[in-house]
């Protein structure tokens, strides 16, 4: 983060889940709050923060219990309700109103679990919580090898399943995921909740990559339509892991509800 080539402002707020670290950039009347996926944080997502902050005042939340600068403790299970309350308290501590929450993967499930009236709209990217992840045998083997022997080569091989066909994972993510596997115990995406109907009371958009192996559109799209009566924007050539080449697509998804 110290090497970022654009201005950042950092802060820490206290919640019932412990301290929560915030990284902000940009200006403007609309505030976008980014909730990252499992194992990710603001330091790894600086390209996304830069792209969003060029249009909106943007804050990235390091989720407590995930690798980052927030409190390291988490519940025994990755309960979206626990994370949802932490996000509610974080928004209250920020004093932020009319927020557009961008949730990615686990972060999308957290955004859906949050009940705060400060949330004006949600943008969900490759959202966990609608269907169970699809994990084929090849991916299961690559993930096991990565966890047992976290080298850059094993991490790169595993992350190739997260990006579009023929693309290479960014070296920043390779280095980070190698470090994370060496030092941390990762979590899985949460199972589908009982109901998501109450979230349709506020604007919500959903996007997923066409080649996403974990959340394939053929399964995710019907589930989102069934539970929330929403269409899903399918991005050609975008995998489960957002790379610098995909940032325009993410910005366009947020713009659908942020203006």
Description:
With 259 residues, the chain is α/β, with parallel strands linked by helices. The chain has 8 helices and 8 strands. It has helices spanning 46-53, 80-94, 106-113, 137-148, 152-159, 171-183, 217-228, 247-258; strands at 9-15, 18-25, 31-35, 57-62, 99-104, 119-125, 204-209, 232-235. Strands 1-2-4-3-5-6-7-8 form an 8-stranded mixed β-sheet, sandwiched between helices. Helix 1 links the parallel strand 3 (31-35) and strand 4. It is globular, with a radius of gyration of 17 Å.
- SS-derived structural category: alpha/beta
Helix content: 25-40%
Task: Find the count of extended strands (DSSP E, 2+ residues).
Answer: 8
Unreliable residue runs? none
**Radius of gyration, Cα only, in angstroms?**
17 Å
* Largest sheet features: 8 strands, mixed
**Count of discrete alpha- or pi-helical segments spanning 4 or more residues:** 8
* Percentage of residues in DSSP E strands: 15-25%
User: Within the largest sheet, what's the order of strands?
Assistant: 1-2-4-3-5-6-7-8
Helix-strand string:
EEEHEHEHEHHHEHEH
Shape: globular
Report how far apart the termini are.
28 Å
Q: Taking all residues together, what is the mean pLDDT?
A: 91
């Amino acid at each position: 983060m110290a090497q970022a080539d654009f201005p950042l402002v950092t802060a820490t707020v206290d919640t019932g889940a412990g301290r929560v670290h915030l990284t902000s950039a940009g200006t403007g009347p609309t505030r976008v709050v980014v909730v990252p996926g499992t194992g990710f944080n603001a330091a790894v997502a600086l390209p996304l923060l830069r792209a969003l902050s060029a249009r909106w005042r943007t804050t990235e939340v390091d989720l407590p219990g995930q690798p980052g600068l927030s409190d390291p403790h988490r519940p025994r299970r990755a309960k979206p309700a626990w994370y949802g309350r932490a996000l509610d308290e974080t928004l209250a501590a920020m004093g932020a109103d009319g927020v557009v929450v961008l949730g990615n993967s686990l972060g999308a499930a957290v955004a859906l679990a949050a009940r705060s009236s400060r949330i004006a709209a949600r943008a969900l990217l490759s959202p966990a919580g609608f269907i169970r992840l699809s994990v084929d045998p090849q991916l299961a083997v690559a993930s096991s090898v990565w966890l047992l022997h976290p080298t850059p080569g094993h991490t790169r091989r595993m992350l190739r399943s997260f990006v579009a066909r023929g693309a290479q994972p960014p070296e920043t993510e390779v280095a980070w995921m190698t470090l994370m596997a060496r030092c941390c115990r990762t979590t899985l995406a949460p199972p589908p909740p009982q109901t998501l109907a109450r979230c349709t009371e506020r604007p919500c958009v959903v996007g997923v990559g066409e080649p996403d192996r974990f959340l394939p559109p053929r399964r995710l799209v019907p589930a989102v339509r069934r539970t929330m009566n929403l269409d899903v924007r399918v991005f050609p050539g975008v995998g489960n892991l957002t790379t610098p080449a995909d940032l325009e697509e993410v910005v366009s998804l947020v713009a659908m509800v942020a203006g």
